[in-house]
Structure prediction request, 279 residues.
Amino acid sequence: MQKIKAKISVLFIVITAIAACILHLFQFFFESGEPAAAFAGSDSILYIIYTLVFVGSFFCAIYAFLKKDMAKTFDFGNRKSSVFLSSVLLAITFFFDFLHQGYNCYDYVQSVSFIEYTYLVPLGASGLFALVSSFYFTTLAMTARNLNYDFRNFTLLHFAPVVWAFSKLFGIMIKIVDIKANMELCCEFILLCMALYFMFSMISAVDKKDAPATKSFVFSSLMLMFMAFLVGVPRIIMLLLGKGDLISSVSFSSCTYIMLGVFALTLLCDVNKRTVKNN
Prediction:
């Protein structure tokens, strides 16, 4: 019965994520003056998207609540191809994120006469720690491949993605004025909060070593993937359509968000697979 409830929860998570993503795209087109959907105004779209985020988080919580007797979060006794691949791709996206943010810093300094350090410092910090995060997930990939490395021994490196997320979070906080006027940034704010939640769950799992995966880890993994899909996919589609000017924050971080969500989901799937084997 619990397995059926868990599968139903996953189904609703997928449905709400896809629906919210499609409506987010509609919202972009509505702001551009093009007919987006049969809505009386963009406010209707905003409220529905927020509702879907709430509903999605509700089903993520239900799924996490149903999970019991979980395997430990990290187990590299055998080569983990899926974790290895997602870690490598995430490391690559973090590296390109570093290059992109470095270019953004240079472009900003060259284009303004007065530098706002409240904008420049978080931007530079996110770029710097994107580079460190790239190295961190490279070590995680090497650990998953059993190459005589253990990323769990690099204590301070665990906080590199945390500082990266905090830097981007601070940059967003100084921009948000209203949840209606800044819906896109509000969703990104929630995404980064989920990223921090997931990172701290990872750090806790490393600290506790052989302890089973927690419900917090399960919930944060699902919500991170949900929000990464909602925020990242519409941005990438808009950029591919040549409508990047409609996005409040054009950044390579959209790819990083998606890959971070994929990594979290891959890690959760690995835990679920080992849990089924143990039971």
Remarks:
- Helices lie at 2-31, 42-66, 81-111, 117-144, 160-173, 183-208, 215-240, 253-278.
